[in-house]
Design brief:
binds adenosine monophosphate, about 140 residues, three-stranded mixed beta sheet, alpha/beta, single chain
Length: about 140
């Protein structure tokens, strides 16, 4: 976020001002095996990351919890399933907001989610909006007013 954006009042902010842009977001592709997704999740330290299709449109999200659930069999973990299953078979839906949505729309979206995806008019993935970014902006406004 640059200084001009930091100075904007809540009413003037759009989600694009607060998002982490796509090139800085760890993600996986629909056809990646679960073992690749697990490596990305462990390597990045995030609990979940977005799933994109071949054209960079948002498809869903994948989390460590879902992967561990999927490989847990009756007699313990079936590690071979990590290479058998693909991300698109087990991923979750993910809430998205438009890059030109208002601050309050972003706030509503992250009440129930630690992050949501940001898309353009054609559903192309532009980045993510985290609850942390919304809370930091609110804190700054609280001390400014
Ligand atoms: P934070 O508010 O920074 O703790 O981020 C909340 C969640 O957003 C993380 O647990 C991740 O699932 C996701 N996240 C944050 N930053 C990134 C990133 N750069 N790449 C992928 N996912 C991210």
């Amino acid at each position: 976020m640059d200084t001009i954006r930091e100075d904007k009042h809540l009413e003037d902010i759009i989600i694009a001002d607060l998002m982490i842009s796509s090139e800085k977001v760890a993600h996986v592709q629909l056809n990646n095996p679960l073992e690749h997704a697990l490596l990305v999740l462990i390597g990045s330290g995030y609990f979940a990351v977005p799933v994109l299709d071949d054209s960079n449109k948002l498809a869903g999200s994948i989390s460590k919890t879902v992967i561990l659930d999927q490989i847990l069999g009756n007699d313990g973990y079936e590690v071979e399933r990590l290479s058998e299953l693909k991300v698109h078979e087990v991923m979750d839906d993910l809430v998205s907001v438009s890059e030109d949505a208002s601050f309050i729309d972003g706030l509503k979206a992250v009440i129930d989610e630690p992050f949501v995806c940001v898309v353009d008019d054609e559903e192309y993935f532009k980045g993510i909006l985290t609850r942390r970014a919304i809370l930091k902006k609110l804190k700054r406004e609280y001390y400014r007013r």
